[in-house]
Design a protein that fits this description.
With about 100 residues, this protein is of the alpha+beta class. About 30% of the residues lie in helices and about 25% in strands. It has four helices and five strands, in the order αββββααβα. Strands 3-2-1-4-5 form a five-stranded mixed beta sheet. Strand 2 (about 25-30) and strand 3 form a beta hairpin. It starts with a helix and ends in a 5-residue tail after the last helix.
Length: about 100
């Protein structure tokens, strides 16, 4: 997840997301000049993305599309599709 923080390119709007990777939860907040990434789940995330480490690796490291991973069932999304697009773009990833 540390590599995710370094990939931050900025965001047009603030977003709070929870990434559930295997048995771990991370809070990601975007907006402004820096992203915040901390251990643990936020109280009311706009987006929750759940999946195994290999699926997050496919998205973050290998450049797979987040939407494709969701549609294949490799990742599960709770929340609006636009939030996933905004999260991906904030880190220079494929939505």
């Amino acid at each position: 997840m540390v590599s995710l923080k370094r990939r931050y390119v900025g965001s047009e709007r603030p977003l709070c997301a929870e990434l559930r990777v295997d048995d771990l939860s991370f809070t990601v907040r975007t907006g402004g000049p820096a992203a915040e990434l901390v251990d643990g789940a936020p109280p009311a995330p706009e987006l929750v993305l759940t999946g195994p480490l290999r699926s997050f690796g496919a998205w973050i490291v290998q450049g797979a599309s987040a939407r494709a991973l969701v549609s294949e069932g490799a990742l599960a999304r709770e929340g609006p599709a636009q939030a996933l697009t905004d999260l991906a773009r904030a880190f220079g990833l494929r939505p």
